[in-house]
Amino acid sequence: HKFSIFQKKHYLCNILQYFMVVKNVIVKMTKIFVSPRIYWQRYDFSSLTAKDLHGKVYPLLMSAFFAVVLFGSALNRMPEEGFPIVLLDTVVITLLFALTYFLVSFLENWICRMYGGIEYRKSSIFLLECMLPFYLLYAVLSVFPSLFFLWVLVAYGLYLMYFGSQYFLKIAYDKVIIFMIMSVLVIVLGVAVAQTLDGIIMGFFVD
Questions:
Q1: Per-residue pLDDT tens for 148-172?
Q2: Which among 158, 154, 152 is positioned nearest to 176, based on CA atoms?
Q3: Whole-Å CA distances, 105 to 88, 90, 100, 112
Q4: pLDDT band at 2 (very low <50, low <70, confident <90, very high)
Q5: How high is the pLDDT of residue 78?
Q6: Which run of H or E residues covers position 82?
Q7: Angle between helix 83-114 and 120-143 (nearest 10)
Q8: In this structure, are residues 137 and 191 in contact, taking their beta carbons and an 8 Å threshold?
Q9: Which end of the chain is more exposed for a tag (fewer CB within 10 A), N or C?
Q10: Rounded CA separation 104/100 (Å)
Q11: Based on C-alpha coordinates, what's the Rg of the chain?
Q12: Do 76 and 142 form a contact (C-beta atoms < 8 A)?
């Protein structure tokens, strides 16, 4: 019985620690998103490991993404396609975006090492922050598809990238533009592959 109580306390501490890590990172990411020029310089995420980012923060963000996209897709597509198809498409696109992030994160790490030996932890948080506009817009437009013109706001990721590459990654000023072009190409390629695979997979289930 005493061991059982000890186990429960241990699990509770782990859960609390999990949410503290996630909350801390998300608060920082939100501030950077709103004012990148200021907060990229203030936060170095020195206490965050790649394991924490990929094992705690990213799963929670993707769970929220999944929930919003599922709600929006069900709201707008269920009368024509049915809930099973909507659910399957949401699962597929969420998994593909997650896999794409890790693929792009690997390539971005290679670019970052080439431009200054930047560690994987920093390149991963940089990439996730810069991809937030895409994730947010995709989720919002799944609920309000008539606002498709808001896709132009995905360019805000360039704003995040510009200051992040200088103040967070410490890329040399004369190399920032080339670094950004390579990073954008990698991200666009990853998203395009995810969207294409989603269309191919769903093509087997939808006439």
A1: 999 999 999 999 999 999 999 999 8
A2: 158
A3: 25, 22, 8, 10
A4: very low
A5: 81
A6: none
A7: 150
A8: no
A9: C
A10: 6
A11: 19
A12: yes
Structure tokens at 98: 């997650």
How far is C-alpha 138 from the chain's CA centre?
Answer: 11
| Amino acid letter, residue 168 | F
Tokens of 3: 């061991």
- Amino acid found at 36: P
Tell me the pLDDT tens digit for each residue of 37-95.
999 998 888 888 888 899 889 999 999 999 999 999 998 888 788 888 889 999 999 99
- Answer whether 62's CB lies under 8 Å from 136's CB: no
Q: What is the DSSP string of 139-177?
A: HHHHH-GGGGGGGGGGGHHHHHHHHIIIIIS---GGGHH
The predicted-structure confidence for 11-46, as pLDDT tens digits, reads as follows 666 677 777 888 889 999 999 999 999 999 988 888
Q: Nearest to residue 164, comparing CAs of 71, 4, 43?
A: 43
Q: What pTM does this model have?
A: 0.85
H/E run at residue 35: none
* 3-state SS, residue 2: helix
